[in-house]
Each structure stands twice: as structure tokens, then as C-alpha cells.
Amino acid sequence: MRPTNIDDIVGQQHLVGPGKIIRRMVQAKMLSSMILYGPPGTGKTSIASAIAGSTHYAFRMLNAATDSKKDLQIVAEEAKMSGSVILLLDEIHRLDKTKQDFLLPHLESGRIILIGATTENPYISINPAIRSRTQIFEVKPLDEAAIKIGIKRALQDEKNGLGKLPVNLKPRAETFLAQATNGDLRSALNGLELAVKSTATKADKITITLPIIEECIQRKALRNDKNGDAHYDVISAFQKSIRGSDANAALHYMGRLIEGGDLTSIIRRLLVIAYEDVGLGNPQACARTVAAVTAAEKIGLPEARIPLADVVIDLALSPKSNSGITAIDAALADIRAGKSGEIPAYLRDAHYKGAAKLNRGVGYKFPHDYPSDWVKQRYLPKQLSQATYYQPKTNGKYEKALASQYQRLLKAQRES
């Protein structure tokens, strides 16, 4: 099911959609070497294959870890004969110095157009000499809609897919397959193929139900015997349990999401919870949440449950504060109601010739020139000079200190 044309790529529209960078490169026939990095099964090889198919260049695939310098030499000789070759080099972060030194002149000459693929952060794991000669593009996990497109194509394609078989994929099975594979189209197609080829034909149909998909991808779907909204109900209960400081309930609901293989929803929800419900009550817990979900993304399930469990307990037992979201929503409410006003002239940009003639920046007091690096000065538009959006809470030590500083500065600013 590997695409042979850029129009056939599933997902990654930020790179291959209309007017986006890789599509523009293909259309202009101005290809440059690049590194694609992101999780497995998200389209790195597919993009390379589609670029080659769309430009009619020869396309070769090698692995930086297992293929030798001699294999690279064969590709280089072919490039001399044909003009240019697109080389997909998988696991490029494992390219040793000997192979790298061989490749560099061929990249500079343009004879080899390198497309490196890696699941590692290229800014950390790839040698600067290679990195400086390539464009770096992040490939992101596919969303549910994109996975479903890939599934439908596989069911309809008679040559490369399952189109010749009388498959009846039930809607709930399709949705679960798209959700539970965590943005990995390869895993979804592997699960689909196993399900179809291991299921007997009955009444001239190969009927693929939810239990069959669960067994083939080794994930369990969330159950709901009434309205089919179990997935969102569990996520809602998960956040509300953390907000309510019940660590045991939060672990239970996260366990349901883990059992359903829904790592993406867990990560997204934890980041929201950290800043919406804990926020300034315990900013260190917010930072620890970012670190934990980053680790979880790197190691994947089932081991991802370990850092996630730690941070769920941390968030549930942290002091809570929603003062941040309340403050920005209050500011947005004024803006949307038309309460904006003019920015004071002394705060406007003065970094251009003639700004002073327009009174831009004139009279601005530079706080660092004053004791304690503060000076009384109006920053809000005049019409909103008395507006107060931030209403501090004092559940945690950090925000309690912020509240004291905030009230002191507010009082000093408003004293006549």
C-alpha cells in the first residue's frame, strides 16, 4: 500500500498538502536532501516513495545500521549513470563516520538526494555535518480520520490491498482500529490484514467485528452498553478525578484508557489538566508532566504506564489553581466584546526612523533604570486601566507568593 504519488500520501498535510513545503519542492522539481523524523508507521518511507514516484527519479532504500559502505557505493555509481537517485536511508541516526564521510560529497553535488528517516530527535542524534546539509521535517502521528482513509484504501485496492476479498468491516471495529493504533498506519494495516486473513468466510462475506480487531491488535476497546460515548466519558471522569484530588479514581480511569491503547488521549489530557487544573498551584508539577509525557511518547506502551502513573498521582495530590485559564478567558471576553482601546503611545514600537515624530515610544520609562527594576507606568489601554483579569488563589506556596507580589504591585500602580 506504499504510495507512489504525493497525492496518495495519507496524513502529513502540513508537509504535502496544497502549498506546503514538500509538495512545492516536488512541483518545482527542486528537491533537496531532508530528514524526516517521527514515530513509527506515520509515513516517513511513504513520503520518500511518493517523492520518487512524483518526480520519476530512481528510488533506493538502505538502512544506516545494517547496510555497508559498499551498498552506498553501488547507489553512488547508479547516480553517476542516471543523473540523480533518491536514497531513503532508514535509521539515519545510526550512520557511522565512514559512511557519513562517503555520503557528504554526493549530497553536495546533488547526485544523491538523501531522505533520512528516524524516530529520534535529529537535533540530538544526528551528526551536525549531515544535519547542516539537509532540511529537517517532523512527521506527526496520524489522526483517526487519516487512519480511516488508509483502511478504506486497503479494502478497496485490488492490486496491493484486500480489494479482491469480500470484507465487511463493521463500523465499531473500524473506529477502534483507527483509534487504538495510536496514529500508526502500519500497525492498523497489519492488524486489518491479520483479521481478514484469519477470519473464515461466511455467507460470502468476511465479517470483521470489534472482538476480532481487539484480538488481532491485542487491545481492548472501552465498553458502553448504551450510547457509545464511553471513550469521552472515561476521559471526562479522568480529568475530573484529578481535579477532585482522587488519585485512586484517576489511576482507575487512566487504566481503562491504557487498556484501550489510547496513549494519545492520555498524553493530551494530562497536559491540559496540568495547566488548567493545577497550574500556578504547583508549576513544578506542570513541568514534571511535560517530562513524563515526553518519556511516555518515547518508550510507548506498555512501559509508558510507569511515568504516566507517577504524574497522575503527582497532579491529583497537588494544590489546585485554575486562575490562569480564568484570567485569559476574562481578557478574551473583554476583547471579544470590543473592549480594546489604543495601546499607549509610549509602549508602541519605536525601532524605525521617524517613530519619534509620531510620538512612538516617547516618554517610555525603562523599568531596569529604576530601583527594584520597577516604575509606575500605565500599560493597559486607558479605557481598561482598571481591568483586573488575574484573580490569584492561595492553595499552593508558589501562587501564594505570586498573589502577595501581585497585590503589592497593583496597589502601587493604582495609587494616585
Question: What does it look like?
Answer:
There is one protein chain. Strand 3 (85-90), helix 5 (97-109) and strand 4 form a beta-alpha-beta unit. The chain has helices spanning 13-16, 21-28, 44-55, 69-82, 97-109, 122-125, 128-131, 144-156, 171-180, 185-197, 210-217, 230-243, 247-259, 263-278, 283-299, 305-317, 323-336, 397-414; strands spanning 34-37, 58-63, 85-90, 112-118, 135-138, 167-169, 206-208. The chain contains 18 helices and seven strands. The N and C termini lie far apart (73 Å). The protein folds into four domains: 6-138, 3-Layer(aba) Sandwich (Rossmann fold), CATH 3.40.50.300; 144-217, Orthogonal Bundle (Helicase, Ruva Protein, domain 3); 245-317, no CATH class; 323-414, Orthogonal Bundle (post-AAA+ oligomerization domain-like). Helix 9 packs parallel to helix 11 (210-217). With 416 residues, the chain is an alpha/beta fold. The longest helix has 18 residues, at 397-414. The strands form two sheets. The chain has a five-stranded parallel sheet with strand order 2-3-4-1-5, with helices on both faces.
